[in-house]
């Protein structure tokens, strides 16, 4: 099988016991700093109550460990900083994600570092309009980053990683980077520089955004919430987590990760 389409299980089977602790420390530090930068721009953020015992947790068998922290408030509906995996056995999934509220239609911010144990990187400005017909939205948020996108996409250190999940492939848009590379500090630095540049774009867009008309916000909220639900429910990584946490355990994790309680609160408010 071509390496672009190898599954996570296949990569792990080839190198199942690599200690990735140093890479976790660096990547987690980058993601946490980016989360903190985002959090500093939004007032009123509060830690989701269900996360209070999830700052650090382990699977029942001790095979996996992780952290899941999520905040909401103001015009940041769901800000997530989390990691899950085994730092002594090759596998890590780490992310910083910001789903905005409906005051604006600025794209959501999604960033993932992973190890399998090759370095994995996913970055996305999740669109909130149909890019196939809303060319104004496309030109506003995706054309300005085109050169930077192509520079990283064409970098010889990285190769494309194809998700085996059809829904995850449906999410691919002109900002999506889904890349793999050798796990080393040089490649992490290249990706860090890219992510910080994208963060600057994103924060500037938010600062300059025009408000969404009140009449359009309920429909935008419904779409935002459905995206949140499906992105977590259809993530192929759930299959791996199920082997460790069981079906019920993974369902409980998904309910928390997508922020089901938070979505219910704002919908019924």
What does this structure look like?
The chain has 269 residues and is of the alpha+beta class. It has one domain (3-268): oxygen-dependent coproporphyrinogen oxidase. Helix content is 43%, strand content 21%. The protein has 9 helices and 9 strands. It has helices at residues 8-14, 21-39, 135-141, 146-153, 166-170, 185-208, 217-233, 237-257, 260-268; strands at 46-47, 57-58, 65-73, 76-86, 91-100, 108-115, 119-126, 159-160, 177-181. Strands 1, 2, 3, 4, 5, 6, 7, 8 and 9 form a 9-stranded antiparallel beta sheet that branches. α2 runs parallel beside α6 (185-208). The longest helix is centred in the last third of the chain and has 24 residues, at 185-208. The protein is globular and about 55 Å long. The N and C termini lie far apart (50 Å).
Helix share bin: 40-55%
The structure class reads alpha+beta
Q: Quote the beta fraction.
A: 15-25%
Largest sheet: 9 strands, antiparallel
Q: State the total count of DSSP E strands.
A: 9
Elements, N to C (H/E): HHEEEEEEEHHEHEHHHH
| Rounded mean pLDDT score | 95
* Total count of domains: 1
Q: Compute the gyration radius: what is it?
A: 18 Å
- Named CATH architecture: 3-Layer(aba) Sandwich
């Amino acid at each position: 099988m071509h390496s672009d389409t190898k599954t996570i299980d296949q990569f792990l089977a080839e190198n199942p016991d690599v200690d990735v602790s140093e890479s976790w420390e660096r990547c987690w530090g980058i993601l946490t700093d980016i989360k903190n930068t985002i959090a500093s721009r939004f007032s009123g953020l509060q830690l989701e109550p269900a996360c209070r015992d999830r700052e650090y947790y382990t699977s029942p068998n001790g095979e996996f460990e992780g952290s899941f922290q999520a905040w909401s408030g103001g015009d940041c509906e769901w800000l997530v900083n989390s990691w899950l995996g085994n730092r002594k056995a090759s596998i890590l999934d780490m992310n910083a994600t910001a789903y905005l509220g409906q005051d604006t239609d600025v794209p959501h911010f999604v960033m993932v570092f992973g190890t399998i144990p090759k370095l994995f990187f996913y970055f996305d400005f999740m669109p909130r309009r149909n890019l196939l017909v809303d060319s104004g939205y496309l030109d506003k948020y995706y054309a300005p980053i085109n050169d930077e996108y192509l520079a990283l996409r064409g970098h010889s250190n990285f190769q494309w990683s194809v998700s085996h999940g059809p829904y995850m492939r449906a999410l691919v848009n002109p900002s999506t980077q889904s890349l793999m590379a050798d796990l080393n500090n040089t490649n992490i630095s290249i990706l860090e520089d890219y992510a910080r540049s994208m963060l600057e774009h994103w924060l500037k867009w938010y600062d300059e955004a025009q408000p969404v008309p009140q009449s359009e916000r309920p429909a935008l909220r419904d779409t935002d919430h459905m995206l949140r639900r499906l992105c977590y429910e259809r993530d192929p990584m759930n299959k791996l987590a199920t082997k460790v946490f069981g079906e019920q355990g993974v369902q409980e994790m998904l309910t928390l990760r997508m922020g089901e309680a938070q979505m219910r609160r704002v919908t019924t408010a």
